[in-house]
Amino acid sequence: MKNKILSFILFLMLYSIHCLSNNFESSTVQNLQCEHLIAPLGIDAQFPRLSWQLVDHRRNSYQKAYRILVSTDSLEVAKGKGLFCWDTGKKQSDRTLYHYAGNPLKPFTRYYWKVQVWNNRGHLLNSSVAAFETGFMQTGRWYGCWISDNHDKNFEPAPYFRKSFVVDKKIRSARAYIAVAGLYDLYINGKRIGSHRLDPMFTRYDRRLLYITYDVTSQLHVGKNVVGVVLGNGWYNFQPNTVWHFDEAVWRSRPAFCMDLRMVLDDGTVQVVATDNEWKTSTGPLLYNSIYTGVQYDARLAKPRWNSTYFNDSTWEKATLRTAPAPSSHIVAQSLYPIRNIEKIPFRSITCLNDTTYVFDLGRNIAGRCQLSVCGEAGTTFKLKYGEKLYKNGHVDQSNVDIYNYPTIPEHSFQTDIFTLNGQGEETFTPHFTYHGFQYVEITANKPIKLTTKNMVAYFMHSDVPSIGQMNSSDSILNKIQKATNASYLSNLFGYPTDCPTREKNGWTGDAQIAIETGLFNFDGITIYEKWLADHRDEQQPNGILPAIIPTDGWGYGGNGPDWTSSIAIIPWNIYLFYGDDNLLRSCYDNIKKYVDYITSISHSYLTNWGLGDWAPFKSKAPVELTSSIYYFEDATILAHAAHLFGNQDDFVKYSTLANKIKNAINTKYLNATTGIYGGGTQTELSAPLFWKIVPDSLIQKVAVNLAKKVAEDHFHLDVGLLGSKTLLNALSENGYDNIAFKVATQVTYPSWGWWIKNGATTLYENWNMDSPGTSFNHIMFGEIGAWMYKTLGGLNPDPNNPGFKNIILKPTFPDSLRNFECSHRSPYGNIVSSWYRKNNFIYFTIKIPANSKATFYIPSNYIKVSKLNKKQKIKEVSMTELTSGVYEFTLKKTDKNSLYK
């Protein structure tokens, strides 16, 4: 009996340990972020956003309460005891994002924080300790002056700067704060600081400049130290001529910078090494640099160890103080994911055209640059010419991207780098302050050479946004389209969304607003878009008008319209939907109002013909007045939603009324209620009103039938431009024609996305006809298809009433010719997985919903849910199911009904 009791007690102890261990493993608080970044340095936000995730894979798991602790003492935070800058106390809420609301934050201060979470099972969970650090906090605390050299903006060699200084005491911590008009590389004691590329990000320089913060504690030491800086032109000093007039920008000047190297010594004193006219400057081997054309580098002019303590700078000149204090007095922290060399890619093949010319083939199209390692005699010059295709004779063909004839000086060739050897063994060249779009690189030397693929590698460069979306299916064409879409999206993300990485690199607003959902499903891009919408606010004129490219030097305020610059409303609204964060929408609220009011002021009878229309169509183009008025409606609708969200009842009534009047005006002029046809009945004319919710409820099915018929008449090929590429697949899938949408999406004959893939595309093109003169091979403008896969095949949609995927609107479709599909998206609450496969007439569907989230599952009306009771299949006709967090498996049986959501 005694042994049985002891065994039972031992069992209870082991079971308790197991339960505690299981609870610990299955329920944690993770992914603490400040301003949507992990442990950011040098933030300026007075009330930074703090967010976290509850991770618990059990069903119906959620947060009931939280407590946030913030302190300058990490031990106090870890223990949960002490004097805190902010202690929220226990708050009953399931929200996981809050603005800091404690004691005023101090500049140049490191703060530690953690979250305590009470889950619905009564357990208290403690996160690990996270950190963030403030910078200047948007105040004029700079010690440094703006310095440059004594050359003007037309001088081509890049300026080099150095400063020697002595530190007498041990360094507790050190930060480098640097603001630059142009681009820069920063060195301390001979080592390049950080992994960023092309910093700072491009802004409207006369209205806002960005500074970057680095932790340089480990790079400094007691004794003599040296800091070195090389400046590049970037967009600030645009030297070749351009049709976009950046060479005529009002801010254009010789690059300059301001820097504070702030050291906290072991005794608590602060030593600052700042820019002044005691810094030394000279030129070096970087003879020319342009963000469009390329780089010229002569290694014979290199100054070995120029950025180290061993260099004699007695022949260098003193730096020049800028007469104006800065290009702009508005200098703020660069709080976003930086540009980096993300992927190192070997070249697939090499072709020798003659004894001085070789062509390297990467096998895929990217944005980035190359690293060339070669040996040769001093004075041997290598010209690297980048392109997306080849001539029949094997040489690189730039005719599709060099269509503006930018450089007026022959040696400044488009997308070309030039490297001259110093003859001292193996030399490595990587162009600074530029990037290119390419698959092929033609290398021409001025002397006979022998090269192999081992002589050069490529680096795929882009903003280093985390990947948060994955997709895979049984259709190889669909998988390749998704891969190409993501490659084009990243190739055009360089601190702001661009159109192409070759000839323009412009922030075209239309391209970006079309691709916003594709970007947000796949990548954590909020910090990039918050920066870019700040650019919007900088560029908006007092009357509300915005330019077609942002940033701009003043070009582009004319011919665009709401079909392009509705980015001011559409992007903040989508950020709100995907992140549940209204910060950007709130920041842009007044700007959206000014924009909508401007359109109203130039519109007649609530219709506007201001716009570029369905850009780059196949053959049919919808009327500009129809598509622009639809975007006008969407802007007013978003504004009304925002007004309601922010409690502005007057604006809510005003803009809801306006949106309704625009909708009625569109339908009065363009809708034939008898036939259910808009305008001439083209694909865009029918799909755009359906997608943007213009069609009266009673006529939705009639218009959708006409759209399906029209696509069938076009042999299940698309006949749209940019705007229609956003709406066509979605309008078909949302209204029961998922088979037709899938057939269009996976077509492999012209015109289609699959036609590009079948002809070797690894990125998306600018034109359905890839042989059309001037067609870029790396554009994101037709990239909505990537989002369509998540929204319809995976069924993942945000809920405007519970944004950030707090509630998932789950509406999957199951095209007959697709055997299986799986996608995942890491939402603010955790990873959502939607997966299904087909067997006979059954769909086996699995959905994983993260903790603290839920889903509303809408079952297509041509499927019924099957449940197994008493080993017999019983059928339940259910159109909608509410799901809490956890993993769910459903068996759905196909019926003969039309595929329409109830």
What is this structure's SSE topology?
Layout: H1 2-26, E1 27-34, E2 49-56, E3 63-71, H2 74-79, E4 86-87, E5 91-92, E6 97-99, E7 110-119, E8 124-126, E9 130-133, E10 147-148, E11 159-167, E12 171-181, E13 183-188, E14 191-192, E15 209-215, E16 223-232, E17 256-265, E18 270-274, E19 280-283, E20 286-289, E21 295-298, E22 317-318, E23 320-321, E24 331-333, E25 339-346, E26 349-354, E27 357-374, E28 381-387, E29 389-390, E30 396-397, E31 416-420, E32 427-429, E33 436-445, E34 456-463, E35 469-473, H3 476-491, H4 509-514, H5 516-522, H6 526-539, H7 562-565, H8 567-579, H9 583-587, H10 589-602, H11 624-645, H12 649-670, E36 671-672, E37 677-678, H13 683-691, H14 700-713, H15 722-734, H16 738-745, H17 753-758, H18 784-793, E38 796-798, E39 807-810, E40 820-827, E41 830-839, E42 842-849, E43 854-858, E44 863-869, E45 872-876, E46 880-883, E47 886-894
Parallel strand pairs: 15-24, 21-31, 39-43
Antiparallel strand pairs: 1-2, 2-6, 3-4, 3-5, 3-7, 7-8, 7-9, 10-23, 11-16, 11-19, 12-15, 12-17, 13-14, 13-16, 17-18, 19-22, 20-21, 25-34, 26-27, 27-32, 27-33, 27-34, 28-31, 28-33, 29-30, 35-40, 36-37, 38-39, 40-41, 41-42, 42-47, 43-46, 44-45, 44-47
